[in-house]
Amino acid sequence: MSLIHRVQQNFHDSIETKQRAVATLTGPIEAAVRLMVHSLRHGGKIMACGNGGSAADSQHFAAELLNRFEKERPPLAAIALTTDTSTLTSIANDYRYEDVFAKQIQALGKAGDVLLAISTSGNSPNVIEAIHVAHALGVRVVALTGRGGGKMTALLKADDIHLCVPAERTARIQEVHLLTIHCLCDGIDALILGELQ
Fold first, then answer.
1. Dihedral angle computed from the Cα positions of residues 170, 176, 177 and 178, in that order, rounded to the nearest 10 degrees
2. Alpha-carbon distance 117 to 100, whole Å?
3. Is 122 left (phi over 0), alpha (psi -120 to 50) or beta?
4. Most buried residue among 6, 31, 39, 72 by CB atoms closer than 10 A?
5. Where are the alpha helices (DSSP H) in 46-169?
């Protein structure tokens, strides 16, 4: 296989994964948008967490809401729990790395908020701990996963929303995660700005 063919294959694999995801994700994405907008309209906020590339996705999502996505509108209440290095390292050092998101949710979360919990495998221990604390506080969970959802699947309640990418390869899952985040941002804007009902 030549390098050019390898690059082309990555494009084709990404396209195929996105095409498979259309059937399984569009309904849950709509439900997630409506849940998030309901929270924002009623004084809630959206917290996001994940590790590595999923941490970057958390920050990307929060930035699009706090600043703007593609249209001008007032800032929306969102926070990435992945950005405060002093908080993250003090919790990891004094307690456990598994608690780095959970303790922030304990301090900042309240009933009516939403947690966007991102894990390509669905098995990230600190994201799992975050879900436990979110549920204890009455925070609804939108899980963004792949690979069948991993351990997170069994933790989700009936009123949570699972956005599970139908793929096994991390790169393909992350590519669909980014598209999903853009769909969430676009949908939130469309409802907040009154373009759709």
1. 120
2. 13
3. left
4. 39
5. 53-66, 85-94, 102-108, 125-137, 152-155
Nearest to 60 by CA among 180, 145, 154: 180
Straight-line distance from the first to the last Cα atom of the chain, in angstroms, rounded to the nearest whole number: 49
Contacts of 22 (CB under 8 A, 6+ apart): none
| DSSP symbols for 168-186 | SSHHHHHHHHHHHHHHHHH
Q: Does domain 3-192 have CATH number 3.40.50.10490?
A: yes
Residue 38's nearest CA partner among 187, 173, 170, 181 is 187
The whole model's pTM is what? 0.97
For residues 84 and 151, is the Cβ–Cβ distance under 8 A? Answer: no
For helices 3-41 and 170-192, what crossing angle results, to 10°?
40
